[in-house]
């Protein structure tokens, strides 16, 4: 049986990306970051094999591809408040014209251009 241990995002500025995702998700460093790698865990994960998916940030030196082939969906009971909070942390709304009628999500990107959606789950 396999499970997702961490999702790796490529970044150029590791300290900036680490600060964004730590504040956005309330995640903590699993260990001491290196110059090109850090793993962020849910605060109650309790080790590499604990419950919850981690985010790893990797400095790779190659440019982002647009549109990216992978993105995160972040669920929110109050998406407007979370979008405002994430913008305050440095997220930007993506100028995207592919929203279907009645879309329950907004596409944002982090400080490094990695895209993610904030999905409204208040009616589920």
Query: How many extended strands?
Result: 8
CATH class of the largest domain: Alpha Beta
* Helical residues, percent: 10-25%
- Radius of gyration equals 15 Å
Quaternary structure classification: single chain
**CATH-derived topology of the largest domain:** 2,3-Dihydroxybiphenyl 1,2-Dioxygenase, domain 1
Number of helices: 2
Class by SSE composition: alpha/beta
Low-confidence stretches: none
Order of helices and strands: EHEEEEHEEE
Most strands sheet: 4 strands, mixed
CATH H-level homologous superfamily name of the largest domain: 2,3-Dihydroxybiphenyl 1,2-Dioxygenase, domain 1
Number of domains: 2
Categorize the overall geometry. Answer: globular
Rounded mean pLDDT is 92
Q: How big a fraction of the residues is strand?
A: 25-35%
Topology at a glance:
Elements: E1 6-11, H1 14-25, E2 28-29, E3 37-41, E4 54-59, E5 72-76, H2 79-88, E6 92-93, E7 105-109, E8 115-120
Q: What does this 3D model show about the protein?
A:
InterPro entries: Glyas_Bleomycin-R_OHBP_Dase (IPR029068), Glyoxalase_6 (IPR041581), VOC_core (IPR037523). This is VOC family protein. It holds the Pfam family Glyoxalase_6. The structure is a single chain. The protein has 124 residues and is α/β, with parallel strands linked by helices. The protein has two domains: 54 residues, 2,3-Dihydroxybiphenyl 1,2-Dioxygenase, domain 1, CATH 3.10.180.10; 49 residues, 2,3-Dihydroxybiphenyl 1,2-Dioxygenase, domain 1 (Roll). Strands 1-4-3-2 form a four-stranded mixed sheet, with helices on one face. Strands 5-8-7-6 form a four-stranded mixed sheet, with helices on one face. The longest helix is centred in the first third of the chain and has 12 residues.
